[in-house]
Amino acid sequence: MRTTSNPAFRNLPTGGYAGFGSPQQAAGYGYQQPAGYGGYQEAPPVAAERPITIDDIVTKTAMTLGLAIVTGALTVAFQLYALALPALIVGLVVSMVIIFKRTPSAPLVLTYAAVEGVLLGAITGLFEHLVPGIALQAIAGTFGVFVAMLVVYKTGAVKVTPRLTKWIIGATVGAAVLMLANLLVGLFGANLGLRDGSPMAIVFSLIVIGIAAFNFLLDFEQANEMIRTGMPAKWAWWAAFGLMTTLVWLYLEILRLLSYLQRN
């Protein structure tokens, strides 16, 4: 059963990382049993890679977000808004490479963060030009939702059960289908009323923000599972990438909602 709608976490390899403590379980990580007596030369044991910790995930996520903030700020400062489309394309390509490569890569994740920062900076700059002050509101809103969902997860106020997981994944897929349908219909001059700033669009945007927020619970659970199973520390970059994809989605949706509210 799929345990998350986040494509990064959904492509995690399963099994084979627990039990780093014993030589038998670490055999797949370069450990060789001593040959014992009989004249054979013993191969020195090769230490297994250090298991991932919560500090690894927090550090890598902070580095990823920090880089995105820097590139975004530079984009706004120099008004490089024309880079929005190239950044969108490059970001999509890099994210697909990361997902299908199925191995953590710090350079790729940092590249993705830098490009997404440019994209968000360009979009934010345009919105800020139209509605002064909206950027700070969107940033504060995104940070607030992230912290709130982290508290909800850590306190156990909402348990990530298989039933909740199925609901969140289903809602995410449903929202994506509706947004795609709205885009396709718009190409033919029609309008479903989901992205035009109408009351229906505001309600839909609130629903999407709620879905994105609940996706954080699945992201936190997947990151926690990586720690429980003792995956190598390098996978913290993968967790950082997964968390950032949800943050980008949430931020853009909050930015969109605030723009709707300013019109009304």
UniProtKB/TrEMBL annotation:
Keyword Signal: no
Keyword Membrane set for record: yes
Keyword tags: Membrane, Transmembrane, Transmembrane helix
Name of the protein this chain belongs to: Bax inhibitor-1/YccA family protein
InterPro entries (alphabetical): BaxI_1-like
Superkingdom of origin: Bacteria
Species of the source: Solihabitans fulvus
TM regions (residue ranges): 57-74, 80-100, 107-127, 133-152, 164-188, 200-220, 232-252
